[in-house]
Write a structure and sequence with these properties.
The structure is a single chain. By secondary structure, the protein is mainly alpha-helical. It has one domain: Glycerol uptake facilitator protein. The protein contains eleven helices and no strands. Helix 4 crosses helix 8 and helix 6 crosses helix 9. The longest helix has 25 residues. The chain is globular, with a radius of gyration of 18 Å. It is found in: Cell junction; Cell membrane. It catalyses: H2O(in) = H2O(out). It is a multi-pass membrane protein.
Length: 263
Amino acid sequence: MWEFRSMMFWRAVFAEFFGTMFFVFFGMGAALRWTSGPYHVFHTALCFGFAAATLIQSIGHISGGHINPAVTFAYLVGSQMSFSRAFFYICAQCLGAMAGAAALYGVTPNNMRGTLALNTLQPGMSLGMATTVEVFLTLQLVVCVFAVTDERRNGRLGSAALSIGFSITMGHLMGMYYTGAGMNPARSFAPAVIMRNFINHWVYWVGPMIGGAMGAILYDFILFPRMRDLSERLATLKGSRPPEAEKQQETRGEPIELKTQTL
């Protein structure tokens, strides 16, 4: 496949590793409890949101700044990336998350590590309730991601990275009271590996993946459909041809300028 011969592809994979590592390091670091008393949900939600916005702004032009397997899966469902790229992105995100969690574990005193911000269900939450909450949290995130990064929009309405950061902050402000606000399987996977605790862990994969797929279908097929035939979608999924913008940048070395059209 052309992707494996493209240096831009491997830079993008590394960017996803790098971005997810720092997202987990800072976000989970803010979620650790250093003092007794009430849990600082607002503080944690802001840090996750700011970390996402900063890193998406930093690597978005390289890889798209997914830093979340559910977002990558959503792009795959929407036929906007190939199976191979999605596979390598998700692997890089999980490895990056584990690297970030391991670094956080190493720099945190023993008596402050606790469960290392492991996502757990709140008392009284059934598995069905928790999965539904994760579906809704990720659904709103993916719709936001698709909407603010859509090159077909007429004009730029603010910062895409900041909008996505606000979406993640909103999800945490509500979701932390229910499931700890997973929204990101890599973020949930990393502390589970480090702490060797996988109780109800499947909720933090199934919920976000369903939410991501629903978000892609809702935006790309209902709210603002992409008029592409089946052959085009299959060509993208197979990775048999590079996206036009990436092909031009590879051959000419010029900056990408997204083209917009009237809605």
